[in-house]
Write a structure and sequence with these properties.
Chain A has 145 residues and is α+β, with helices and mostly antiparallel strands. The first copy, chain A, has 6 helices and 6 strands. The first copy, chain A, has a 3-stranded antiparallel beta sheet. Chain A has a 3-stranded mixed beta sheet with strand order 5-4-6. Bound molecules: manganese (II) ion (2 copies) and zinc ion (2 copies). The first copy, chain A, binds a DNA duplex (30 and 30 nucleotides) through helix 4.
Chain lengths: 145, 145
DNA sequence: CATGATAACGCAACTCAGTTGCATTTGTCA
DNA sequence: TGACAAATGCAACTGAGTTGCGTTATCATG
């Protein structure tokens, strides 16, 4: 908790961002969370703070953090954007279609990157990033089928 | 044109779907299009038909076609759903971040599927499908930067 | 500590994709 | 041809995200 707070203050200082209650709370959520977060989840969590936080503020905050490269977005198949720390290395997700649980996965991408380069050359396309997500059923949800 | 019409009527008959103007028009669009289509594009195109078509109808139609396995959806990073024929083999896309042009790509997925199986086993997750999209700049848009 | 510049904030009104309920029209098949 | 289900239109709604504008809080500087 205390070490988190200092870590966050360092990040904010390094990025010329003022320290505000909302900012601290969001950064804390990102550091603690195992899964990417949606805005509705953030608002839910922030609502327990005295006086709550307006959704506009959250959206503007996320824009800032993204601009500074502190967080990045993930698309997980529904209509929402999800956000997670950019400092977590590039990785992909396993998404349970049933319970919506999300797991980070760490896979070997060498072969994928090789294919990427080949295509890039063939089509004259410069590839800047890719999105790769896996959908299926987690252990628990398989049994209940 | 004529051969398309018959092809479509066969598909519809095989799936117990009545033949309607909207349905024919949409199927025709899907058959002819090189790219996945968004609802706004479909409505745009359908608006030239006499009396146009209501967006509710289009959404309901897409639901039907998806249910019958005739079309499938793709997420391309914006807030819209895109639709394309499911009969096109499983493939991925190159998306130009500048001009929004979309290209189908056909790549070797063996290595990806191998990784998929490995992860699946390790995590006890059943993987049903994946989504893999590449973002970057097409040949034209690179020069204009 | 005081204070001004400006970053951060709240609120209300808006956009845009997609959904729902209900009454009407249309396609199909007997 | 008519009955019946499927398809349609319309209006009102939801939920995620955006915008303009006036107010408040943070923080560097003196
Ligand atoms: Mn993650
Ligand atoms: Mn395609
Ligand atoms: Zn699950
Ligand atoms: Zn382009």
């Amino acid at each position: 908790m205390k070490q988190y707070t200092e870590e966050i203050m360092d990040i904010l200082k390094a990025n010329n961002l003022r320290m505000t209650k909302t900012r601290m709370a969001l950064m804390m959520m990102f550091l603690k969370s195992e899964e990417p977060l949606s805005v509705s989840e953030m608002l839910e969590a922030l609502s327990s703070m005295k006086r709550g936080v307006n959704k506009t503020t959250v959206y503007r905050e996320l824009e800032q953090l993204q601009l500074k490269g502190i967080i990045s977005t993930v698309q997980l198949g529904d209509r929402k954007q999800y956000y997670e720390l950019a400092s977590r290395d590039h990785h992909h997700h396993l998404i349970c279609l049933e319970c919506k649980q999300i797991e980070d996965i760490d896979m070997n991408e060498e072969k994928l990157l090789a294919e990427e380069k080949k295509m890039s050359r063939k089509k004259g396309f410069v590839i800047l990033r890719h999105s790769l997500e896996f959908f299926g059923l987690c252990k628990q949800c398989q049994c209940q089928e």
